Amino acid sequence: MEFEDIKEDFDGKAEEQEEKNEQEEKKEEEKAKFDVADFAMEYIMNMYAFSADVKKKGHATLSDMLFKDAMGVYLSATLATWSMGRDKFMKYIDDGFYASGRIIEYLKILETMGVAGDNLETVRMQTFRMHKMYRSSINTMKSKLVEICRDSYM
User: Fold this and answer.
1) pLDDT at 19 exceeding the cut of 80
2) Average per-residue pLDDT in the chain?
3) pLDDT at residue 42 is higher than 80
4) Sign of the alpha-carbon torsion through 52, 56, 62, 65
5) Is the Cα dihedral 123, 59, 95, 105 positive or negative?
6) pLDDT at residue number 150
7) Sign for the pseudo-dihedral over CA of 66, 72, 73, 75
8) All residues at 6 or more sequence positions from 71 whose CB lies less than 8 Å from its CB, including other chains
9) Is 141 exposed, middle or buried (0-12, 13-18, 19+ CB in 10 A)?
10) How far is CA 130 from the centre of its chain?
């Protein structure tokens, strides 16, 4: 009789622990979504100031191209965070990946021309971070697709 009581207590605690773990994972996923959205907002604010500084120095076209791609990175991060479905998610991630790559090239051009503003390092580090997040998301999704395909053929 005592063994049965102990077994029931143990099973009940295990189920409670599983439920707590699932709830914590959901909270962490929601927090990660807000972290990405917050970082993307901070990124676009810095890029706005940076592109305005470039525009003041007489490079309006390059400034507009830079800010257009920065908005693409911001919107891709925001839309990917809230997207439903793998296809939409991958589309937004791809768009953000290529836009952040173009921004990296623009920053190299600006630095070569000597037009870079005061916060070039901040913008560069944030752009590399966004580019790295997009790249890791693409690699993760590709590895998941490979696993799915491998499992479907076996």
Assistant:
1) no
2) 80
3) yes
4) positive
5) negative
6) 61
7) positive
8) 44
9) middle
10) 6
| 70 confidence band (pLDDT: 50, 70, 90) | very high
Locate 150 and state its tokens. Answer: 């491998």
Nearest to 48 by CA among 66, 75, 72: 66
Question: Which residues, including other chains, have CB under 8 Å from residue 74's CB and lie 6 or more apart?
Answer: 40, 41, 43, 44, 47
pLDDT in the model for residue 153? 58
pLDDT score of 65: 92
C-alpha 49: how far from chain center: 21
Domains in the chain: boundaries: 36-153
Name the percent of the chain lying above pLDDT 70: 77
What does the DSSP 8-state code read for residue 114? T
Q: Which of 79, 76, 82 is nearest to 95 (CA)?
A: 76
* CATH fold label, 36-153: de novo design (two linked rop proteins) (1.20.1440)
Q: What is the DSSP letter of 143?
A: H
Instruction: Tally Cβ neighbours within 10 Å of residue 82.
Output: 11
pLDDT at 110 over 60: yes
